[in-house]
Each structure stands twice: as C-alpha cells, then as structure tokens.
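Hey, resending since the last one bounced:
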Amino acid sequence: MAPNEKEWSKSEKEIARKAYRAAYNRECKAISDNVRKMAAEIENSTDLWRLHTYLTEKRKETDEKYDYRYSVLRSVFGRLLHEGWIKQEDLTGISEDKLQEIFASAKFYAGV
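The structure tokens again:
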C-alpha cells in the first residue's frame, strides 16, 4: 500500500467512493443525453461517424479521468470539482488537509 493510501480513513473512503460514483454517473448521464440528441439528428453517414467519434473520445476521456487509486484521488477530485461533476458538499466529511489539496488541484485545472 502506498503511503498516501494509508491516509484515508474508512469513513473518508466511503465518502470518496460515493462522490466518485456520483460524479461518474452524472458525467455518463450528460454523455448519454448528448448521444440521444446527436442520434436524433443523424441525417447522413457523416453524422453517424461524428457520433462514433464523439463516443470514442468520451470513452477515452472518462477512462483517463476516473482513476480511483487513493494516491491520485485528490487530483481526480480536483478535476471533477473544477469540471462540475462533483460539488463541495459531496466531499463533506473528508479531512481538511485533503480538502485543501483537492481545492488546490481544482484551481490548477482552472488555470488559477
């Protein structure tokens, strides 16, 4: 177990897992909604392959983004917070030092 992994208490892990799943489900719902809209507007082969390209890009993006290793989770949460997939309230119960790292990471993603 990596040193950072030991820092997450059992209750923090439960909160983190719930926030992570909620973010993933929110993003997948947004992707799904967009796919439905794009599919309804397909009129030719170009539109069809545009949908395929969109799905391929989103799959790659989500696979790279959603990493539940505790050693990188603070950065993952920072990105998800910046992108709006999780809210600060989703992280209630996580220690202040971890929250500060998450907020710093969110600022990094925002370019601040």
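The longest helix spans residues 10-40.

Sorry for the duplicate.
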